[in-house]
Amino acid sequence: MLTDQEFLRYSRQLMLPEFGEAAQQILKQSRVLVVGVGGLGCASAAALCAAGVGLLRLVDADKVELSNLQRQLLFRSQDIGRAKVAVAADALSQLNPHCRAEVLPEAFSAANAAALLAGIDWVLDGTDNFVSRVALSRACQQHKVNLLSAAVIGLQGQLMLWPHRQHSEPSYHQLFQDLTDQSGNCASLGVLAPLPALIGHWQATVLLQQLLQPSAAAALWQLDAHHWQLKKFPLPAAVTT
Questions:
Q1: At a CB cut-off of 8 Å and minimum separation 6, what does 143 contact?
Q2: Predicted local distance difference test score (pLDDT) of residue 179
Q3: 155 with 222: CB under 8 angstroms?
Q4: Torsion over CA of 5, 100, 45 and 120, rounded to 10 degrees?
Q5: Are strands 55-59 and 146-153 parallel, antiparallel or unpaired?
Q6: Could you give the CA distance from residue 53 to residue 3 in angstroms, rounded to a whole number?
Q7: What strands, in cross-sheet order, belong to the sheet with 31-35?
Q8: In this predicted structure, what is the pLDDT of residue 164?
Q9: Residue 187's pLDDT is what?
């Protein structure tokens, strides 16, 4: 049951013909793991919090640095040196007190995967390196937890949907096993300031849709923000390794 304050807070969302109180209740009961509270994670977590997702479990071992402030919009200059997850949780509590943020200042790994994924409906991957993405992909596939992975670099963005709860295949680590961290990331190749927020909000939008109307189809989207071209690629139903 939504409170009067929640009806007022989410009123513009509740007005949508495809939405309503039942949909808002689903969001309120949903539990999302956000791995990586950088440019992508800041944007997606803020959007999900504002929309009314009930619990966000934030996982990141890093502290706020000056170079983060160009694109990681939950952080301020006075936050430099503090744990990213703690700063993000403070900001999210101010944005929407109905959303609970769990703070885990650690890196995702095979060793802690089971504990971090416990009770989770969806995982948002906002990491910036291949090793972390592979570990997350393997864990989500093993534990049959749905995964929505995003990446940005330069003027390019990418979003990948992996509905592991419906199907065990395919997986990120199987389709992209030839990739390495030598391919580069934001730290080595740069990124335009607004792009992580754009892709992070896109990631959150797709997740909200999936929470309300789950899809069994894995998919890959690529955005070229330089020419404003968006492409969608269906992924195979199974992969042999």
A1: 113, 114, 117, 164
A2: 59
A3: no
A4: -120
A5: unpaired
A6: 15
A7: 100-104, 55-59, 31-35, 122-125, 146-153, 156-162, 219-224, 229-234
A8: 82
A9: 62
Q: Tokens representing 166?
A: 């419906």
- Report the 10 Å Cβ neighbour count for 81: 10
Q: How many residues in the chain?
A: 241
Cβ 124 vs Cβ 203: under 8 Å? yes
What are residue 229's DSSP bridge partners? 224
- DSSP letter string over the chain? ---HHHHHHTHHHHTSTT--HHHHHHHHT-EEEEE--SHHHHHHHHHHHHHT-SEEEEE---B--GGGGGT-TT--GGGTTSBHHHHHHHHHHHH-TTSEEEEE-S---TTTHHHHHTT-SEEEE---SHHHHHHHHHHHHHHT-EEEEEEEEBTEEEEEEE-TTT-S---HHHHTTT--GGG--HHHH-B-THHHHHHHHHHHHHHHHHHHS-----EEEEEETTTTEEEEEEPPS----
Residue indicated by tokens 């071209």: 229
Encode the chain (241 residues) as per-residue pLDDT tens digits: 899 999 999 999 999 998 999 999 999 999 999 999 999 999 999 999 999 999 999 999 999 999 999 999 999 999 999 999 999 999 999 999 999 999 999 999 999 999 999 999 999 999 988 888 889 999 999 999 999 999 999 999 999 999 887 665 666 666 666 655 555 565 667 889 999 999 999 999 999 999 999 887 889 999 999 999 999 987 765 544 4
